[in-house]
Amino acid sequence: EVVLVESGGGLVQPEGSLRLSCAASGFPFTIYFMYWVRQAPGKGLEWVSTISDGGSRTYYADSVKGRFTISRDNAKNTLNLQLNRLKLEDTAMYYCAKAQAAGYDSGYHQRGQGTQVTVSS
């Protein structure tokens, strides 16, 4: 059974930072691309970032490029997202998700329960 458990969310002021983590289990983590996606109140799911299975390739939505950094630790089956210079519009539930198929960017498929990030002054 695929299990993805996010943590690290919270309340932060604008221009603040947070580090999100996702503990993965139940599948061969090291051969799957992984994603972070988010959902703001009243809006649809928004892709945030992608990382390749080996971690050498990363991709970001324009809205977070230069502020967020995705990383993974394949020895610990952990996915991370460093959020810097947070803005009010970054407020959302953040989810980690695994790719639908192994070995390539096949699109996000299963996701965890999420961790809430609230940016407010």
Describe this structure in words.
The protein is mainly beta. It is built from no helices and 11 strands. Strands 2, 4, 5, 6, 9, 10 and 11 form a 7-stranded mixed sheet that branches. It has a 4-stranded antiparallel sheet with strand order 1-3-8-7, with no helix packed on it. Strand 7 and strand 8 (78-83) form a beta hairpin. The relative contact order is 0.31. The model has no long low-confidence stretch (mean pLDDT 97).
Mean pLDDT: 97
Helix-strand makeup class: mainly beta
As a percent range, the share of strand residues is over 45%
Q: Helical element count?
A: 0
Terminus-to-terminus distance: 40 Å
The dominant shape is globular
Element order: H for helix, E for strand? EEEEEEEEEEE
Helical fraction equals under 10%
Give the strand tally.
11
Largest sheet features: 7 strands, mixed
Q: What is the radius of gyration?
A: 13 Å
Low-confidence blocks of residues: none
Can you give me a brief rundown of this structure?
This protein is mainly β. It is built from no helices and 11 strands.
